[in-house]
Known about the structure:
- This protein is mostly helical.
- The protein folds into 2 domains: about 1-55, no CATH class; about 60-275, MetI-like fold.
- Helix content is about 80%, strand content about 0%.
- The protein contains 13 helices and no strands.
- Helix 4 runs parallel beside helix 7 and helix 12 runs antiparallel to helix 13 (about 245-280).
- The protein is globular and about 70 Å long.
Amino acid sequence: xxxxxxxxxxxxxxxxxxxxxxxxxxxxxxxWVILASLSSTRDIFTNSLLKSGVHFSNYVxxxxxxxxxxxxxxxxxxxxxxxxxxxxVAAPAAYILGRASFRGRGLAxxxxxxxxxxxxILISIPLFSIFxxxxxxxxxxxxxxxxxxxNVPFAVFFLTGFFSSVPKEFEESAAIDGCGPIRAFVLIxxxxxxxxxxxxxxxxxxxxxxxxxxxxxxxxxxxSRTLALSLQSIVYGYANTGNYGGIFAACMIIxxxxxIVYLFVSKQIIAGLTVGAVKG
Length: 280
């Protein structure tokens, strides 16, 4: 028995070697960036990180000189509000498409699927024209609406598989107890589909937090600028002054939230995707 186990591990070794190699490379690269964000520019270019000491001033100056705290707050507002809005819009739509039978259901599903194939760059100009006509440009609400609208098709596609696989006995039992369709959806169906909703919310968080293209177009006001968009001006400004420690510090501030979220909820992502694959 022990020999067979060792034999299986040896057979899987060629598959694990590239994974471990990539893991080691990623850890070394991530560690180097952390150390560079705490080093002076001279230490970075001489490949002697932290030789002159730990420079927390790289982070402090970002909040004092670049007002990165305001951009961080904007990104939090955009991300949290958009993630909640996407679920509020997509969950009922996915529930209807996954469980109800009505004329035009196949067409509706096809339209949502077709929306996934449309590149963002093609809808940017029409969207901007619409918001100009509605006089909504230059506000935080504009970018939130853009994030919700552009992410709803994938959210509907993702959640439809979860809702369609929920046994109808749940709703039948709820109807016997006096629950209407809306109440049954909120109290019974949503908790059952929680793995899919959590996984989708994590994907939306990572996507919206790091989004750049729509932020560049719709957050043209300094007060509504996102953290990812502010990185561009910070890099250009610090590169001209030779403050490369500040550049790496800005990268870390942008990267750490998404890394921490993924670090703590990676198991939920895998569980959600596994449940979706089995049910679908």
